[in-house]
């Protein structure tokens, strides 16, 4: 009786237990799923709100930056290489300093690094005049010291270079009175060529003499300069006119001081070594031509160009005075044309030295409204030195009736016989005879 009656009771209790357990499981699952949905909805809502806030903040930040740092035009000064022809840049810098031209940044390669460093250290008339006195005092032995056994065979010996760089180092020390590049009055950058990978290396800070010496270490002429375990040579090998560096920094106006015309025309080579030199010159100038052909929109490049064939050799300093005068004449026209600086043209000029050869007819000021012209120069169309590559809109002004009458009278009296060829102050290649001719 007892076993038979307990079996139905057990079945009922067990069934109730199973149903209650299933109900509890269902309720638990529903609660868990609902809680998960609510948590996910809250997370998505928070993420959407956060993204919107971040997007609003990011969109607002440029406006704040634009308000704090409005767009400003940046003017850069770029000084190219050119060996002893770098004296032309001194004359150009004299005129720029006289008119209060102060760039935002200075870039230099080779001898342009030396002149650029001096200008960045003291961008005043007095500072440039101090640089001019250094150049005027240079002699061949000061830069290229010769030993007892000096001769062409030195180029064939097992050595880094023909000359020591002690003289060049002294010039750099005299022209740049600071120990580090970042101590200059104007931001200064100089470029050198790495002998590790052949790439360009830019120096913006650190020991000044080492960086400038590396940038001006002409291959085979001066030994490489070691900086932080890496050897460097002349920066003009990879970037002789570093306008691209200025463009990358945001420059909108770039004033370029060239020691020679922008397009090289090498003389026909008669010896294998001359062919090698011509190939090197073409390669060096190719970088500048390429950079000029890819100028971005809104960038203005002003070329201040030296003439071709104004020195006899890379170690010839006998024409320094003449080169400075040519640079002054060229820069005077550039300042007049583009209005560089803060002092209206013409500014009171520094005295222009006379040429060592009286037949060269150095440029002298001849009026208050025009650039310097050589004494007695013939202003015929044959002496036109304007370069359409620089500014095709510039044309040589027509002579006045007074000029024509004066020229006729001079020809009748024979005063024009033996007159020196004119040194044009136009922005472009200038036809100039070899000194001493």
Strand fraction equals: 5-15%
Distance between the termini: 147 Å
Helicity, as a percent range = 40-55%
Give the rounded overall mean pLDDT.
75
Radius of gyration: 36 Å
Query: Number of helical segments?
Result: 12
Query: Could you say which overall geometry the principal axes of the C-alpha atoms support?
Result: elongated
Q: Structural class, from secondary structure content?
A: alpha/beta
Describe this entry's structure for a reader.
This protein is α/β, with parallel strands linked by helices. Strands 1, 2, 3, 4, 5, 6, 7 and 8 form an 8-stranded mixed β-sheet that branches. A hairpin with a 2-residue loop joins strand 5 and strand 6. The chain is elongated.
Summarize the model shown:
The chain is an alpha/beta fold. It is 43% helix and 10% strand. The model is unreliable at 47-70 and 358-437 (pLDDT under 50).
What layout of secondary structure does this protein have?
Layout lengths: L1 H67 L6 E5 L7 H12 L6 E5 L1 H11 L3 H12 L3 H4 L22 H10 L12 E7 L5 E4 L4 H8 L9 E3 L2 E5 L1 H4 L3 H6 L4 E6 L13 H22 L6 E6 L14 H19 L24 E2 L8 E2 L26 H13 L24
Parallel strand pairs: 1-2, 1-7, 2-3, 7-8
Antiparallel strand pairs: 3-4, 3-6, 5-6, 9-10
Helix pairs in contact: 2-4, 2-11
């Amino acid at each position: 009786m007892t076993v038979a009656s307990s079996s139905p009771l057990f079945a009922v209790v067990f069934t109730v237990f199973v149903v209650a357990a299933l109900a509890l499981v269902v309720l638990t699952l529903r609660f868990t799923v609902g809680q998960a949905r609510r948590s996910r909805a809250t997370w998505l809502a928070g993420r959407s709100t956060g993204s919107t806030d971040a997007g609003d903040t990011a969109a607002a930040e440029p406006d704040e930056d634009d308000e704090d740092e409005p767009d400003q035009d940046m003017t850069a000064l770029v000084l190219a290489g050119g060996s002893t022809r770098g004296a032309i840049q001194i004359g150009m810098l004299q005129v720029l300093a006289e008119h209060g031209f102060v760039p935002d940044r200075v870039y230099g390669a080779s001898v342009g690094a030396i002149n650029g460093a001096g200008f960045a250290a003291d961008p005043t008339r007095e500072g440039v005049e101090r640089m001019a006195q250094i150049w005027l005092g240079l002699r061949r032995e000061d830069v290229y010291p010769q030993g007892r056994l000096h001769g062409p065979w030195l180029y064939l010996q097992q050595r880094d270079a023909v000359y020591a760089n002690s003289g060049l180092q002294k010039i750099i020390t005299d022209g740049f009175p600071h120990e580090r590049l970042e101590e200059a009055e104007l931001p200064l950058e100089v470029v050198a060529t790495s002998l590790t990978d052949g790439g360009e290396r830019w120096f913006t800070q650190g020991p000044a003499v080492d960086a400038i010496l590396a940038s001006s270490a002409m291959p085979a002429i001066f030994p490489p300069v070691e900086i932080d375990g890496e050897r460097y040579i002349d920066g003009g090998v990879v970037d002789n006119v570093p306008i691209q560096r200025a463009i990358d920094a945001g420059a909108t106006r770039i004033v370029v001081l060239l020691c020679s015309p922008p397009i090289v025309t090498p003389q026909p080579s008669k010896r294998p070594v001359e062919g090698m030199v011509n190939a090197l010159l073409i390669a060096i100038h190719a970088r500048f031509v390429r950079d000029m052909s890819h100028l971005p929109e809104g960038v203005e490049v002003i070329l201040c160009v030296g003439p071709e064939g104004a020195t006899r050799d890379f170690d010839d300093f006998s024409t320094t005075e003449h080169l400075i005068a040519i640079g002054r004449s060229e820069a005077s026209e550039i300042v007049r044309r583009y209005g560089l600086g803060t002092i209206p043209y013409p500014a009171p000029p520094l005295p222009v030295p006379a040429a060592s050869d009286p037949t060269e007819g150095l440029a002298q000021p001849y009026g208050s409204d025009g650039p310097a012209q050589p004494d007695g120069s013939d202003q015929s169309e044959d002496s036109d030195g304007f370069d359409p590559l620089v500014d095709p809109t510039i044309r040589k002004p027509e002579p006045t009736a007074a000029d024509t009458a004066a020229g006729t009278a001079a020809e009748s009296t024979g005063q024009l016989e033996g007159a020196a060829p004119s040194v044009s102050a136009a922005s472009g290649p200038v036809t100039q005879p070899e000194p001493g001719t």
